Amino acid sequence: MKCEEIRIDRYRVTMKGENMTEEQKSLMKYVDHTLLAQGATWKEIQQICDDAIRFGTASVCIPAARVAEAKAYCGDRMQICTVIGFPNGYSTTETKIFETKDALKNGADEIDMVINVGWVKEQRYDLVEEEIARLKEACGEKILKVIIETCLLTDEEKIRMCEVVTKAGADFIKTSTGFAGGGATFADVALFAAHVGPEVKIKAAGGISSFDDAAEFVRLGASRLGTSRLVRLAKEQ
């Protein structure tokens, strides 16, 4: 039996969250099912791809080195998201552009980039805006999400970043990497919703641990949720 036939047979025997409520099922459509641990193995990446397809998540968010394998494995069954300049954001702009183009060539459908937080602290917003705009140019029609690492910023800096992300033409503003000591908060998502432009969507990521919290983030304005815990909860049910 060919590899493709084996994969199809595996998908046929999975069931789509038969014990989940309708609200829980609907929340899965917002989830970027995420595995970005340094030691993530291909077997673990395969598992989150299988789970994402089973539960109907928006995408899988995985390390760039796994994009080509994951795209070949999933085909058109699941969107592949990866991270650029992750997790610290202080790579050069040219490095981030190379990473982005390489990821897209390998099959990435969505790009989550990390800003240079040091530039924000120095109020060099022109450099941040230029970098985001150049990565969006590299992405073309593919989705670009901008991680601003809210736990490291003041509210004033967050508001300025809402303006910068909007002006640069990115598709999403995203709260967190999950690697800097803090994650998404209700207050930050509400702040984003009040200050981003109408074309910019919001991704809450980091520390989303329950369906109730996920529902509240969506109510406040999030269009994506970066998490792995919701799928784990669904599997337990």
Protein described:
- With 237 residues, the protein is an alpha/beta fold.
- It starts with a helix and ends with a helix.
- Helix content is 48%, strand content 15%.
- The model is unreliable at 1-15 (pLDDT under 50).
- Strands 1-2-3-4-5-6-7-8 form an eight-stranded parallel barrel, surrounded by seven helices.
- The protein has eleven helices and eight strands.
- It has helices at residues 3-12, 22-28, 42-55, 67-74, 93-105, 117-121, 125-139, 155-168, 186-195, 211-220, 229-236, and strands spanning 31-34, 59-62, 79-84, 110-114, 143-147, 172-174, 201-205, 224-227.
- It has one domain (21-236): TIM Barrel, CATH 3.20.20.
- Helix 5 (93-105) runs parallel beside helix 7 (125-139), helix 7 (125-139) packs across helix 8 (155-168) and helix 8 crosses helix 9 (186-195).
Enumerate the spans where pLDDT stays under 50 for 5 or more consecutive residues.
1-15
Span of the ends, CA to CA: 33 Å
Sheet-strand content, in percent, reads 15-25%
Task: Indicate the overall shape.
Answer: globular
- Give the number of domains: 1
Reading off the top of the CATH hierarchy, the class is best stated as Alpha Beta
Rg measurement, Å = 17 Å
Specify the CATH architecture.
Alpha-Beta Barrel
Helix content: 40-55%
CATH topology: TIM Barrel
Give me the strand/helix succession: HHEHEHEHEHHEHEHEHEH
User: What structural class do the secondary elements suggest?
Assistant: alpha/beta
**Order of strands across the widest beta sheet?**
1-2-3-4-5-6-7-8
Estimate the mean pLDDT confidence: 93
